[in-house]
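Why does residue order matter? Because the sequence determines the fold. Keep that principle in mind as you read this record.
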Amino acid sequence: MSLKGNLSAGLGQVRALQTRGDTAGAILLCERLVDSSSRDPAAVHFLGLLHKAQGRLDSAEGLLRESLESGPQRPDYLANLGNLLVAAGRAREGEDCYRDSLALDPAFGPARIALGRLLCRAGRFEQALSVLESLKGTVSHGPEVLVLMGDARRGLEDLAGAKQAFRQAIAANPNYGPARHNLGTLLLDEGEFEASLDELTRARMECGVRGSQVEINRARALSACGRSREAEEVMRRCVQLNPGSLQSQLMLARLRHMQGVDDFSRYFRRAARRQPGRRELQLAYATLLRSAGRLDQASQHLDECLQRNPGQPDLLLESANCHQLAGRYMEALGAARAAGGADNAGVTDATVDALLSLGRADEAFPLILEARQRFPDRQRLHAAAAVAARILDHPLYHQLFDYDHLVRIVDLPCPDGWGSLAEFNRDLARQLRRQHVFRGPPLDQSLRNGTQTPASLLRMTQPVIRQLLTSFKQAVSDYARDLAVDQQHPMAPARRGRSVFAGCWSVQLHRHGYHVNHIHSQGTVSSAYYVELPDECGDQDQRSGWLQLGAPRHPVPGVSADRFVQPRPGRLVLFPSYLWHGTTPITGSSPRLTVAFDVRFGSVP
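Structure:
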């Protein structure tokens, strides 16, 4: 038998060993084939793939490159090298390999699919779609490609096109789990909760999709359908199987918190105790406690972590945040300074917050001005600059918090199709109340004693919500057009470029409900739209449920809210996202129902 025949038979035996799961045996046999064949490129390449399967990426890369250098360039070899480089976190080099593979054979499906997947993950959706579209009508144009095309269309906000692609993939193979899972998550984001739950359940039960992500999405769908107990049970099983999953632990804790469970963090606490050396788990647990207002527990936990990991900046920064919320401003300042790092925006925020609360605006102001040079788009710094400037009687305060010019109050006109704005708001309220399925507020939000819708309103298809969004877009466009600010002002991006809605949600406040003072770090323009209000909001003296502006999140001597806006049904208030805002509590039993959104102009971190 020829060397080629012996090699071919030997590689067949290697494949058989690998198929049986005997990777070590496959490697030993393949190494002998490499030696006996004078390092034939095919044998060397196969050995490289086996090393990759064992996680030996460095040696695998060397072998794959050797196979390419010692033989003719082959598209499959280049694609395999690209896969390895992507797995090693070297996406740009991997992309080059895929493109080199396609230069040799534009019809080589595996390279085109891998490149499309890589571009999707990088958020380069138009390029991904262009790469994948060329596979139409080819053997490679199966459900995997259709799902990737759906992902790309979803990234481009072509939701109808994304759903069509996912459904085409399901029609091609009803048991292709990723298609059902991705369709289910898209329906979930659109507010089609029952349909979403059906697809996600079928993905798991009929298609065998496993892992924490499908369970988290099923739990989201169940809770949005008002089946919170079932959602909690799904996540409880998930964390029992994988207690170290941060995403699963956080989801379970948030679900329990929104159900009003007092010991909402029990499972997370158990995982943290069992893995004391896993710092990211300990930090996440402390942040969870802080977000829920359990400040003493959070600080105690962080002290224990810092005894095991003295001087860790991330733990010190979280400790500073806890001290600040608890009113221990000297301790907050000490922890922030110990965390160090002037180039760390979080450390700068914590240091400035502590100094302002200590009444040391003269020390904070130069730090803020210097940080604004390094982080010109950071909304927290604009808010802090205004507070410090107000104390120091600096003109920057009036530039940043120019209420008369930067805050716009719009009484929306009645949309077409409704007899009056009151009729429109009644229809809107009925639709929104269906979305308020939780008993308590989410973590990490400004809301107290109220509920928030679990899914964004941006993708919901109900006519009353689509019309509301249309009205919002027109109001934002008018607001941006009328702004008169110089090019250095934080609101200057609103004078140019295309706006993007960064989020839209509804909030319902109950008795004693309110928003703590806060800003919106991901927006340029933020808002409040009033749908239904308790009668007490009309009391000019009590100001119950009113929007208050100018007071910072943490107490600062001599600084309080210096502008109030009375809510009225049908009224929309627009303002800079960096402007400190909150609400006064409502005191009666009738709820206060609102819609809020953020709009981003350009890039706002």
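Strands lie at 408-411, 447-452, 499-515, 525-532, 547-549, 563-565, 571-576, 581-583, 592-601.
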